[in-house]
Amino acid sequence: MLTGYHVAVIGGDARQIEIIRKLNEWNATVYTAGFDQLNESFTEATDLEFDSNQVEKLDAIILPIPGTDDSGLIDGIFSNRVIQLSEEWLKKTPEHCQVFTGIANSYLKELMVKVGRPLHLLMNRDDVAIYNSIPTVEGTIMLIIQHTDYTIHGSTMIILGLGRVGMSLARIFDHIGADVSVGVRSSKAAARVHEMGLKTIDMNKLDQENMECDILINTVPHLVVDHHVIKQLPSHALIVDLASKPGGTDFDFAEKRGIKALLAPGLPGIVAPKTAGRIIADVMCRIVKEKVRKENADE
Amino acid sequence: MLTGYHVAVIGGDARQIEIIRKLNEWNATVYTAGFDQLNESFTEATDLEFDSNQVEKLDAIILPIPGTDDSGLIDGIFSNRVIQLSEEWLKKTPEHCQVFTGIANSYLKELMVKVGRPLHLLMNRDDVAIYNSIPTVEGTIMLIIQHTDYTIHGSTMIILGLGRVGMSLARIFDHIGADVSVGVRSSKAAARVHEMGLKTIDMNKLDQENMECDILINTVPHLVVDHHVIKQLPSHALIVDLASKPGGTDFDFAEKRGIKALLAPGLPGIVAPKTAGRIIADVMCRIVKEKVRKENADE
């Protein structure tokens, strides 16, 4: 339980709704800003008033998953209000006040250093990335079915990268009946792909590998799906790039060759906002609870 | 090879394109009607002229998957032309001429009895139904991801029926990470569900079973998803009914309770027309080849 724990949730999307629900469930005192246009209302949440003394009680602040923009503005899909995260306001929070976000740009990182409050980048965590790979895989399945006129079952598929998402992709697409090869760099990853009963592609010498396939999924965040790779794809092939923007695909060249290529980062929030919200909420609440438990033990 | 074998393909959709491709590949002589608005043209196919003596050479006629309407009219998505399948014309075909369709209404069945030509109902075949279950499962996955805000992984799912489609659904959704129960009537099916490591629901006493779940998929072609079942579903539940029209769900009651329910027959032709066409083409060509082989052996 988080009784007596004060949290401000500022801006965000449907995922924040699940976070607020979870915090209520655990009896935290919740303040919200940026949810004025939400149809349902949280009876157990209080409006956050930036000018009031609420700020002095805050044990945690939860920002949207993308953090702030380059000038510290916070976006929220449930509000037209522009919310500025200011240095002055943050300094009024108790020194132990933790700030949670998915990712952070240099503005947010520098701001947090200036005010000296701990910043948690949830999307950098291995556990969050692995939990998030579940809705990412399901979103990828949906995209492939929508954008091809053949089944995944029986298709040849190359997955580039055996990271936190690549591993989930490889396992599920193998189960669905695709003929899966996985592009890896390390001998450790090659061994794992072999153990899974799948074929290996050596990404250290991608220009010498046969890259012909029906479906190519990239998870590597730098240019790997280049001229050489795209040239080998048949006209009916589909490229799905899951790497964060701008992806790892030469989209211009793919278009020239008439190969459909989709850049699809951020699938969890799109295809399963409820699950994605729960993932964030669970991990965040675990961090907070762990801290509360430690403090109680120290006393 | 089908050299010297004459086939007329009359009407249909994208699946027929694959069938024509396959027949060309095997060197059959192909006549087509109802493809005048198709962008690509078949260089190796001849236009079928109903008044010519082409009819006397036909070894096989391929109708659209849905057969004809109640007055013998043939539909084709690549033509505005109305094509009538007449008794008079069919009688001009050689006596051994085989007619292929997916399903047949009583008009078509009676017509074929009158003219005394063998009629093959491809969709009634176990092999076609099992091959078709692959795109059906993928279409079902797509629909579920589109219509829920939670992942399939971790959801509780009930599948009603362990037939040719139910078996494929149970296996794949288990692999994707759903918590799957399967509704069955026979002790044989219950044993198979147990062997697959899944939970059984006894459809002989559905009114005594706990039907609460996140996702309910029906494959049984009579009313099984009734008041009693729907009442037990939570408001976020999704019903997908794959049984042929009108399905096995009380859709009016589902709507009254605010439960989303989708009737989704014919998914293969929608989500993967290329694969669906190949399935039909492969089975049809196997039947034709088998017959040709037998005739050659008899001579």
Return the CATH architecture of the largest domain in chain A: 3-Layer(aba) Sandwich
Quaternary form: homodimer
Strand order of the largest sheet of chain A: 3-2-1-4-7-8
In percent, how much strand structure appears in the residues of chain A? 15-25%
Structural class of chain A: alpha/beta
Shape of chain A: elongated
Radius of gyration of chain A: 22 Å
CATH C-level label of the largest domain in chain A: Alpha Beta
Describe it.
Two copies of one chain form a homodimer. The first copy, chain A, is α/β, with parallel strands linked by helices and 299 residues long. Chain A has two domains: 6-124 and 273-298, NAD(P)-binding Rossmann-like Domain (Rossmann fold, 3-Layer(aba) Sandwich); 127-265, Rossmann fold. Chain A is 38% helix and 18% strand. Chain A has ten helices and 14 strands. In chain A, strands 3-2-1-4-7-8 form a six-stranded parallel beta sheet, covered by helices on one side. In chain A, α3 links the parallel β7 and β8 (119-121). The longest helix of chain A is centred in the last third of the chain and has 26 residues, at 273-298. Chain A is elongated and about 65 Å long. In chain A, 48% of the residues are buried. The mean pLDDT of chain A is 93. The interface between A and B is medium-sized, with 25 and 25 residues.
